[in-house]
Specification:
This protein is α+β, with helices and mostly antiparallel strands and 388 residues long. The chain has four domains: 3-121, no CATH class; 128-200, 2-Layer Sandwich (GMP Synthetase, Chain A, domain 3), CATH 3.30.300; 206-268, no CATH class; 280-336, no CATH class. Helices cover 30% and strands 17% of the residues. It contains ten helices and twelve strands. The chain has helices at residues 95-105, 123-149, 181-191, 202-209, 220-223, 233-238, 245-248, 263-270, 314-325, 361-385, and strands at 51-55, 61-65, 77-81, 86-93, 117-120, 155-161, 167-173, 194-199, 280-281, 286-293, 298-303, 310-312. A five-stranded antiparallel beta sheet has the order 2-1-4-3-5. Strands 9-10-11-12 form a four-stranded antiparallel beta sheet, with helices on one face. It has a three-stranded mixed beta sheet with strand order 6-7-8, sandwiched between helices. Strand 3 (77-81) and strand 4 (86-93) form a beta hairpin. The longest helix is centred in the middle third of the chain and has 27 residues, at 123-149. The relative contact order is 0.06.
Length: 388
Amino acid sequence: MGCANCSTASDGTPKGCKNNGTCSSGGCDKLEVYDWLANIALPAGQQPYDIVEVRFKNSRKSFYRNASQLALYAGDIVIVETSPGYDVGVVSVTGELARIQVKKKSPNLKPLEIRKILRIANQEEIDKWIKGRSLEKELMYKARTLALNLNLEMKISDVEYQGDLSKATFYYTAEGRVDFRQLIKDMADHFKVRIEMRQIGSRQEASRLGGIGSCGRELCCTTWLTDFRSVSTSAARYQQLSLNPQKLAGQCGKLKCCLNYELDSYLDAIKSFPKNDNKLQTEKGDAYHFKTDVFKRLMWYGYQGETGLIALSPERVKEIAKLNKEGKKPKDLNDFVEKVEKEVEIGYSNVVGQDCVNRFEKSFSKKTNNKNRNKKRKNNANQNSNPS
């Protein structure tokens, strides 16, 4: 954690970055929040909002009440109430921005039932917290070994120590119900801490572990995506993507969340298109739909047995379908193809010729040729003056 390296005051409490969520140490990059209301003063007589959002390991966040009216800033390490003991977290959102987050994420939140922020963590508590983070990796490997010895069909993906090192939460994924009562007993005997097992889905596992997607950027679920909506194969069909599971699946093994990003735009655009399951009847034969280009607003039809495709606008397709309902058949689909005149693009023309990249090559070539000729003449003159 970069915030653990921030400077401390004389009494041992961390000063915090006080940089409104833009810590440059690299430790607050996980789901960071820029407090755009930090420099706006409150109206006269209004008390600051006493609920603060605190971030824990990975993307886990929760709201706590600042009952002691501590001067908290984004990046401060605080001690919060838990049952039992206490936990250590990093302040992510304060003030009026926290009020907006509460309305967005927990609209039915009752302030008096929220657990409190006890104090700002001192150096001893921070060192204990960092020590717990360093023990989590070894603890996870040992827990996986114990689960394999019991032949349990589960995958332990992450472990999180509580700030006072009195409890460890194990996050696991499993396809079905798992009886881990014996596993909890074995882990409690080995680790000498309270054990809590928490089942998560594949998408939540990917968000906690992180990674790089096929687009070359960090996973959306790791950086900013908080709600996981169901993604179906119909989203790929509406966007006319090939149903290749290797390309459509993310690192979690499920369909990529980004398939839903532009789905609404496609659905709105497809509403103006006619149904593509109806064939168009002409005197030449029946034409069948092959593909649709939503961006160019074209529908491609072709006759059975022929290789060429004919591009029609949705309005033309509706016109032909209307004629078919009236019992009429047009002669050919080519009669309905709209001829688009190519516009003459007036681009940039280099009249003078000074913007050519190779404009200096001729002058350079002339100079080099003249130098070579002069060298040859000198060599010939020296040879003639000094005969062997």
